[in-house]
Amino acid sequence: MTATALPAAFSLVQDAQGRWVYTGPDGIAHAGVSAVRAFPVSGRDQGFALVSAQGRELLWIDRLDDLPAAARDAVQQALQSREFMPVILRLTGISRASAPCVWQIETDRGPAQLDLKGEEDIRRISADVLLVSDRHGVQFLIRHPARMDRYSRRLLDRFL
């Protein structure tokens, strides 16, 4: 069942094994559900789906604000458990002026270190968003690089 509008009643809860379980208005429970953003970088506030373990869309949600508070909280928790994309707030140092190198950074999740293989691992997603992939496959976002502190911008400019 692919839903295009929010059903009158549905639930999203975690079972004893930590899996998300979606129960639609038909009463059928689907275990192993994932919450997925349609546009995880450019449109984080719109377009969400609850997808079955087999990859079928069970529910489409245009905006989280359209949901009752309990359902909204559950969907946000399911999104957070699936997504891990720290946002770089500032660069505090680099090991050398060209890649490969190690960046010392501060993220929205605390201090970290990023191993940059090459300049090609820094991609411009939009005018105000950069996506940086490290040697281990972890992806970091830089939102509004022009708004970063002067020292961070100077270090970042070496690689752009």
Number of strands: 11
Provide the spatial order of strands within the biggest beta sheet: 1-2-3-4-5
Beta-strand residue fraction:
35-45%
Q: Show unreliable segments.
A: none
How far apart the termini lie comes to: 46 Å
Q: How much is the radius of gyration in Å?
A: 19 Å
Total of DSSP H or I helical runs spanning 4+ residues: 2
Shape: elongated
Main sheet overview: 5 strands, antiparallel
Overall pLDDT confidence = 87
H-E string:
EEEEEHEEEEEEH
User: What portion of residues is helical?
Assistant: 10-25%
How many domain modules?
Answer: 2
Structural class: mainly beta
Summarize the structure.
It comes from Amphibiibacter pelophylacis. 14% of the residues lie in helices and 39% in strands.
Descriptive notes:
This protein is mainly beta and 160 residues long. It folds into 2 domains: 11-82, no CATH class; 88-157, no CATH class. It is 14% helix and 39% strand. The chain contains 2 helices and 11 strands; from the N terminus they run βββββαββββββα. It has helices at residues 69-82, 150-157; strands spanning 11-14, 20-23, 29-37, 48-51, 57-61, 88-94, 101-107, 110-116, 122-126, 129-133, 139-143. The strands form 3 sheets. The chain has a 5-stranded antiparallel beta sheet with strand order 1-2-3-4-5. The protein has a 3-stranded antiparallel beta sheet with strand order 6-7-8. A hairpin with a 5-residue loop joins strand 10 (129-133) and strand 11. It is elongated, with a radius of gyration of 19 Å. The model has no long low-confidence stretch (mean pLDDT 87).
